């Protein structure tokens, strides 16, 4: 039974009645019980798992969004030994395995209270006192927990129970609140005692640490108390008699240095009581064990034990002596400055966090290193306490100075509460992120959130784009980690696994599929492919055609000799598992196209897209990926402006250099045309000797398949649409609005990332042009990119470790910002939708060989750019002779200002406007504006005209209802950029309306010339239409049609 944040001495002060009862019953108090980590999690992991929290990553918890289902909890061992098991806490939001973690997908114990506490907290939680709801309706949560424990013990009186219970709500934040619980804990113990329950129960009452903040933490005693939590062990009288040596040893150890690791070893002993018989303890004592990190409390702990041998970091060690350093001395300020530097290094890459500065040096104490039992050391250690600004955070850390090098000896503690300073959780937040969440979000007056140090993202003669903050006041409350996202089912216990060459059965996971005997399990390996023959080239499913080969059975493993594979597994004749596997064998290039000569300079060109992510949302939701690209010297295009509404009109310019409208006269004359005759950029690379690849993680939402007919032939050497379509149709699960997120037990985006990595590896000795696009996780939700951040960083880092980025040009890009949801109703969201992220990462030797091209790319990063410019740049990369420095200079002097696509290796003119860049006014981010009253005659006329335009768009479809104006939300008059024009004779308005039926939210830019109204660009819809337009197939008109 745990009580959160209660030191040994504060237990004496605040719960004297409970203490007295334990003493009366003969409980053993541990005077040297020392914590091993900062907060609850790193101090309970050693008790329940026998591991440090940092060890879990390798063992069972690979990332912060993983569940704990595969972790080897001590209760599993008790369950195997015939015990009932229980786990309960009096809070769900601050739960040990739920606070900024995702908990368990399966019920970890026989009795598990989290579901109950979550619902109670959600619906009846009240009296919130800083971090915790204290009450469930009219009853304290801690009292709910005590009553439950008592009832459970009575229900299981004839059985054996291993229970782990933790109180948080009343003790977590305040030094003196445990006083309010003292009487009820005493009554609880008396009730168990009166029922004779304590006669056959071992009771461990403990805490994780002392109070971690508040006034007491500024005192010497408070610092020591925080490191020495309470621990009492109450053993039944029968135990003391039957295991007298174990009892003697545990009393001896009450005055020795002990840790949570020792508790785990003690619990292991309680599983096998024979091991603590007097005779066996004597034998065990003769075996050297003094330097073990975990020592059972039933074994005598040696008096020469140190923090180092006990696994306690120097920062948490209570065995040290100290010598104060005068705070005005150079030595003290040197220590403080180094602590500040180390803290800011921890925050590096988190744009949200302000750079911290030293506000006050509170204390520097030199720790006298070593004990009489340790050898002399060559370094010095200092405990440093500082206050920083902005935010007034107070930090404490132990620094080690080894010559001129300073490092952290453990973690950094915060001594005051941080409230909402660190309110975003975007993945791997250090404990310090909470210290410093952008102080600059304070004091911003304008709704456009213009930055004080840089007023504009882009400022040229032809285009001015105001600079917005990633966490502007309009959007910051919308940025939350998507904790409700369902993980892929059984992801931690998949029945099959694979590498680049084999697929095998994970027999250790058979139990999760109710298979006890391996003899009953067999799997069927079926390869499949896209056949060359086509039955009907007019079929809508022409791009979905597939043919399967015969089945090969296996019972252990099988060689993966094909590109696309489906495996089904059976227990007897019952199908129990179905999964798809994709491989990347090196194929033979056509004999007509020779590979690039080894002595010719050429780089892989890899375009990796993430759907629906603005530049600022990339910063917000994928900070670790952003930090990697920044560290590697990637060039961010700050003025990259979309040219169309959704993915298709923004990717066609990139891949063909054409607008969507140009396709009809170029290569897709009819709505049912395929794209086989279109001039894709990969064809140029193919002719130049490159392998080519095209892949998306969704078939149903594929760029060339959603409402379109795709390809008859395979457009590239590696084309994975056939695979993704089969996987989506057969094992696609967790459909979240538009997308299947999972391919059975694996996220589709992870399937794509793994494939890219394998393909890059397989073609390492050749050159590759590849275009890959992620859709499933990001298409519909603002915050879902957070889920992918860590996996993208790992992907980039793995390829970096084999120097792949030294020979590859990476274009990391999106098509637009999020087009739906609450953010689109904000001014910032409107601008973000038009400014997707775009990063270009060049190899180091490219920057040296093509200095002028690289210099121009850096210059253009602050100019207005478009997908047409990406296409022009790709054209240059087909033949690098085009970007030799002398040719770049020549081309720069003859550059045509109004060309549709301007290679990013050639300077973009300062005079470039949206018009000259072929961006319609509706998508242009460069315009100034002023609001028009929604009650004015002009405002109402603009709204009326937009609704009329909407109805005109679907006038040929009788099944579509006539829309009516329900609400005029906003009207803005745009101030046209007149650069390059003698005069402007029109007026333009951006208008947002709600229509009925259907409650559609629409945004359009209307131009009025001589009383004639025209749509400037297309009309956006910024809420989801779902199944409202099921009666028509035209994807461009589905936005506007409400089926009657």
UniProtKB/TrEMBL annotation:
This is Uncharacterized protein. It holds the Pfam family DUF229. PANTHER family: FI08016P-RELATED (PTHR10974:SF1). It comes from the Eukaryota. It comes from Danaus plexippus plexippus. One of its GO terms (cellular component) is extracellular space. Transmembrane segments: none annotated.
